[in-house]
Specification:
By secondary structure, the chain is of the alpha/beta class. It is built from 12 helices and 9 strands. It binds iron/sulfur cluster (2 copies). One iron/sulfur cluster binds next to helix 9.
Length: 329
């Protein structure tokens, strides 16, 4: 597959942006993982914003005409006022805005903080943090007076939000991070105008099936007698991990990664978000687990599920912001 320029005016090159909000930087790295295709991308497109690799100023972006950017990839959730402002700005400046990766799509790991209050987060980060020497319990202040004026930092929002909670999103590319093949396919479709129309339900530039559908492991129709964590035992390599008692999110997770973790003998952690029509990935997975417990009484079922360590972090690891729970909201 090759990329051709010419969907936009000016020098004939597309204008592409990549922005990071509340994220780890992995999505930016994953864009580089398209390997030699990066040369095709650079030939066909001008990068007009990519804070991870070049020093673009927000003021420059603000001066772009509206819809100046053909495709803007936005990775990370929205945790503070700066990220919210950029989400609104980039929506205005972009013809197509893409939620890139698990955090922009569903909140990702940062949204697990939605199970805590802001006060709880600040207390554990600045007051009771064993790796921090902070006897005066100093905390970041939104505004600090200095000799020549005021210094301000962004406000910490009460919750981590998805990009779509702030502005309209045209498409999503799921994954933590998205796999290079899926990124390249989606990029080609975006610049070639081959993605479904924005006003259709299909917004996710990926497959609809579940990870189980592309997993090569054998299902033996065995019920679960107990749960264990990946470090507690070495799994049989050919057999379904869920049936072996490892929580594998495959049944409720969108395929597209090629069953990457399963091939490394590790359970799927759910990073591609909910599959197909599933709305709440965690609820769907809890339902899947409940249907294969080796229990005929409620008491026995409770004994088994009590062995699941950190159920919220397990079932909602990547999707708390888009779940029906939504944390403390
Ligand atoms: S539950 Fe996990 S291991 Fe089992 S078939 Fe699905 S993806 Fe494969
Ligand atoms: S197997 Fe699951 S956790 Fe691993 S990359 Fe694929 S979707 Fe993500």
């Amino acid at each position: 597959m090759t990329m051709s320029a010419g969907k936009t005016g000016g020098n004939g090159k597309l204008k592409i942006g990549m922005y990071w909000a509340a994220s780890c930087g992995g999505c930016d790295i994953s864009l580089l993982e398209i390997g030699p295709h990066i040369l095709e991308l650079i030939e066909a497109a001008d990068i007009v914003l990519w804070p991870c690799v070049a020093d673009f100023k927000y003021a420059d972006v603000a001066q772009y005409p509206d819809q100046f950017i053909d495709v803007c990839f936005f990775n990370g959730g929205v945790r503070n006022s700066e990220q919210e402002e950029l989400a609104r700005l980039l929506r205005r400046k972009s013809k197509t805005l893409v939620a890139f990766g698990a955090c922009a799509s569903d909140g990702g790991i940062p949204a697990l903080a939605n199970t805590k209050t802001v006060e709880g987060i600040f207390a554990s980060s600045y007051d009771d943090n064993p790796s921090l020497d902070n006897p005066s319990r100093v905390r970041p202040q939104p505004v600090t007076e200095i000799h020549c004026g005021e210094l301000s930092i962004p406000h910490f929002c009460p919750h981590v939000l998805r990009l779509s909670d702030i502005v309209e999103v045209d498409y999503q590319i799921p994954g933590c991070p998205p796999q290079a093949d899926r990124i390249w396919e989606a990029t080609l479709a975006l610049v070639g105008g081959e993605l479904p129309a924005r006003n259709t339900a299909k917004k996710v530039a990926c497959f609809d099936k579940s990870v189980c559908d592309e997993c090569p492991r054998e299902k033996r129709q065995v019920k679960i007698k107990g749960f264990r964590r990946p470090h507690e035992a070495i799994a049989e390599p050919e057999w379904c991990l869920l049936e072996q008692g490892f929580i594998c999110m495959g049944p409720a997770t969108r395929s597209g990664c090629g069953a990457l973790c399963l091939k490394a003998n590790q359970p799927c952690r759910g990073c591609y978000g909910p599959s197909g029509d599933v709305v709440d990935q965690g609820a769907a997975m809890i339902s899947a687990v409940g249907s294969i417990l080796d229990a005929t009484t409620e008491e026995r079922a409770r004994e088994i599920v009590d062995q699941i360590v950190d159920p919220v972090g397990t079932f909602y690891r990547f999707t708390m912001a888009s779940s029906d729970l939504k944390g403390n909201r």
